[in-house]
Fold this protein.
Amino acid sequence: MNWPDQLNARIVRCRLCPRLTVYRERVGHEKKREFRDWDYWAKPVPSLGGPDADLLIIGLAPAAHGGNRTGRVFTGDSSGRWLFRALHKAGFASQATWQRRDDGLKLLDCYITAVVHCAPPDNKPSTKEIVNCSRYFDEELQRLKRLRVVIALGKIAFDNYLRGLRRLGIPLPKPLPRFAHNAEYQLGKGLPDLIASYHPSRQNTNTGKLTEPMFDAVFSRARKILAD
């Protein structure tokens, strides 16, 4: 068993956050009417990808009726439809499907994680819950040795990545980078390039704050960096 499988096994067993544990399990029991025939996952949702990834994508948390239902990150909700379409178009995923964890999708040189691995009420994890989950995130940062690009989806993911580097004792430039869509940052010798992106949540996609061309541009930039 490789280290991502070992880490994910620990993530799935985690019950560190009482509020999130109660919420994810309650959602899995009550369900949403359109998914009443589903057997909800209702556990922490593991990361996705292999140990030799060149690209790391950081999301916020599973959706209550997305990843918390399907058991795969960004799977079964509108954010996942945007993400896997963009990944497939840029050559980081074998297909653009996103509805089920058994659909045959394979990531290509890409690893997807989240700031928090349990679905939070109102999509808002608390500071304590983010701290609790950071132990898994920090281990991923230490073990993903081949990373050349990191894409942070949303400001919380962006900030948490910088905090993760700081927790690992890695010096950061001053002043710290500021979040801006499709902005690219070189944080220091030996560190992967960081690209910021708006999160593909409905709040951003339904309002036009994030469009498909804007989102595609982020992954095109990542692909260009990896090609150099």
Notes: The chain has one domain: 3-227. Residues 31 and 37 are 9 Å apart (CA to CA). The chain has eight helices and six strands.
